Amino acid sequence: MAAIDVKNLTKKFDKFVAVDNISFQVENGSIFAFLGPNGAGKSTVIKMMTTILYPTDGSIFINNYDIHNEKSEVRKSIGVIFQDHTLDDELTAYENLYYHSALYKIPENIRREKIDDMLSYVGLLDRKNDLVKNFSGGMKRRIEIARGLLHSPKILFLDEPTLGLDVQTRAFLWDYIKKINKEDKITIFFTTHNMEEVENIATKIAIIDKGRILIQGSSNEIKKATKTKTLENAFLILTGYGIREESADSGPMKRRFRR
Amino acid sequence: MNSALIVMWHRQIKSYFRNRQRLAVTLVQPLLFLIAFRFGIGGMYEQSGRGNYIQFLIPGIVGMTILMSSTMSGMALIWDKQFGFLKETLVAPVSRTSLLFGRCLGGATTSFVQGLIVLFLGFSMGFRITNWGLFPLALIVMLTIALLFNLLGTSIAAKFDDMHTFPTIMNFIVMPMIFISGALFPTDGFPTVIKFLVKINPFTYCNHLLKYSMGSAASHSILLDIVVIAIIVSILGSLGTYFFNKMET
Questions:
Q1: B93–A76 C-beta distance less than 8 A
Q2: Do B18 and A80 make contact, defined as CB atoms within 8 angstroms?
Q3: Residue B236: pLDDT above 80?
Q4: What is the pTM of this model?
Q5: What does the buried/exposed string (b/e) look like for A5-17 if buried means 16 or more CB atoms within 10 Å of the residue's CB?
Q6: B88 touches chain A (CB under 8 A)
């Protein structure tokens, strides 16, 4: 059984094709990475898989649930860490997690204990009553990880999770992700444009550019297929050397996408 | 705390009262209107033999306070879009309808409290409730108006991303609604065209019902007010639900 099954997925914004007829499967318990330059369509795919953006065409099954008509089941079985921060700055760390646990209907009698457990895993239990706006970017990200895992999802989505983090937080984050993947059998799907992360973490990789999957397989398979020694060379050969103009989160592009 | 509606309601109220500065700032504008109109127009109004101006003005200012703060609570949605928290709620396994109504009821509660504060300021300026039997109706009307304009503000905000255009648009809608409703001064001197606008202005009916419930004489049947308000709340409720269900990010 595949944790994620995507077939012929397409997303158009007006005439711009952001995702162009892609298909892939993510095995249960694996770590799958989407590797692509800025503006390749990585975030768009994650948004569609997490039910907050509607596909133009194609099918997506998450944990065997259809995103078109079993949204609620899909949402219950996933945890999402978005590229941009999604905490409420005006609330404390504890309150953010508490509202999350209420939205996900975690039984009231175990909420407090679960939240404390999660906060101590990410090393922020002593800061639980501080307002989030006083936290650094790395601390916010740790709280988001705690929150994303609070309702024990089967699949965890991370969209460029290490963007702008310091080395320590990055190391912590990947160690923790590897640990929950191994111990709790949580399937991981993440996007990045960082080669090292992909080589060290992912069991399977899809290289995506201009809305299309160019190649997928393990790091070794990709290197073999492109006859290159490093993943970086493979990546550059596949996607070209041209520098991309828009960043994945650039204002005007995003605004155009939203309409 | 279990349903998403209560979660959102609770959160709107909590973040509102946590920000003391905002609380103070939102009371400044009604206070300014109260003073300007009380001393600027009050004398003229009373000289023309229309009766006590404070009795006329206070329910209008209370309604205005609720109208302004309610529509502006749509801004909270824009902020949540901008700072990401909206995504956290959109990806949660809860109905979008409960997200909308939770937000709006939360916003309505805080606007209601602001309206009450202004009402108490009115008491200190000499305003008197003439019929306490109708006062429970006044409270219900205040809450309903608050919900109505929260739904309006939030529905519009669901369609806009830009935190600069939203306040401009809202001002453009809100200020005329206040001026041609009869909240601050009578509308009988208006030319026919504007009188027509008065009739199609939803706030006219809110204001009339609120004034009536606080002791003014009714100039038309309050049943009309109730029907108009009920229709608008259901239209905005359905529209907002539609927008929330369609909302992508």
A1: yes
A2: no
A3: yes
A4: 0.90
A5: bbeebbbeeeeeb
A6: yes
